[in-house]
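Worked example
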Amino acid sequence: GMEVFINALVLVDGLRNSARVSGSTPFANTLDTMSLKNYGPLSVHFTQNNREGSSYVGIAIINSRGRFVE
């Protein structure tokens, strides 16, 4: 669903920006400085004290035919 797409965007943004950050863990340091970033209808927020990213919770339901319904 959309959360997988947003996760991929956050990963790509973090990897792109981690090249500019020094330290032993540049990717984590990049996320720590990411602050609030909007990706369309969903926003993510990382700080050094909050690494949850988003409070979005997706629910998937499987119907009687075995297909996912979001």
In short: The mean pLDDT is 79. The first helix runs from residue 2 to 18. The beta strands are 35-39, 42-46, 61-62, 68-69.
